[in-house]
Design goal:
This protein is an alpha+beta fold. The chain has two domains: 92 residues, no CATH class; 107 residues, Histidine kinase-like ATPase, C-terminal domain (Heat Shock Protein 90, 2-Layer Sandwich). The protein is built from five helices and five strands, in the order ααααβαββββ. A five-stranded mixed sheet has the order 1-2-3-5-4. Helix 5 links the parallel strand 1 and strand 2. The protein is extended, with a radius of gyration of 22 Å. The protein starts with a helix and ends in an 8-residue tail after the last strand.
């Protein structure tokens, strides 16, 4: 928080300098302002990447502990089941031929879900046609679902040009409207859909 305040103060000072200066000095302050803003944005991206990596390492360590526990109890079949159904699935869920922006967003959402004590499951990534507006809607819809999931797992199902976000066990709708996302609550199950084709799950 302290570092953010300092950076904002520097940006404000550069902005005032650019506004009050004349001729070449104004250009000088504008160049400094752009460089500083770009550097700040870059560092925020680096910080997010480091946080994602830290949380993924923490998750994998927890999963290894669970597998080790089952093996110590002599329940190798249960350990093998956990390995294939949970551990490997969580690793493979975001693997695919996705654009970098899509892959990075999915991993960030994964880390955010872990921070709030829930887990994301992705299905149908192989059928998705990545588009910017779909990513925009997905990022906001999943973030809303994470905030109200109360630890319940979140299922994201992708279709060619649309997606569904489903959370079971919750009793309320998101309070913030997202353009293009339609939320439906039925019997403690929240389903959000995005895209021209409002597809449903069986």
């Amino acid at each position: 928080m302290k570092h953010t305040a300092i950076r904002l103060a520097v940006l404000l000072a550069l902005g005032v300098g650019a506004d009050k200066a004349h001729h070449l000095w104004r250009l000088f302050f504008l160049v400094l302002l752009v460089i500083y803003a770009w550097q700040w944005a870059t560092m925020r991206g680096y910080a997010a990447t480091v946080e994602i990596h830290r949380r993924q390492r923490h998750r994998y360590a927890n999963q290894l502990q669970v597998i080790s526990g089952w093996l110590q109890l002599g329940k190798s079949e249960r350990a093998n089941q956990f390995l294939w159904e949970v551990a490997l699935k969580s690793v493979q869920s975001t693997v695919g031929k996705l654009p970098l922006r899509w892959a990075f967003t999915l991993v960030r959402l994964d880390a955010l879900a872990e921070r709030y004590g829930t887990i994301l499951w992705y299905e149908g990534l192989e059928s998705l046609e990545p588009r910017y507006w779909a990513l925009w809607g997905l990022n906001r819809a999943v973030r809303q679902a994470i905030l109200i999931a109360d630890g319940n797992p979140i299922l994201v199902v992708f279709f060619r040009t649309s997606f569904l976000v489903r959370v079971q066990g919750i009793k309320r709708l998101p309070t913030k409207h997202i353009m293009g996302v339609r939320w439906v609550w039925d019997e403690h199950t929240l389903t959000g859909s995005w895209g021209r084709r409002q597809e449903t799950l069986g």
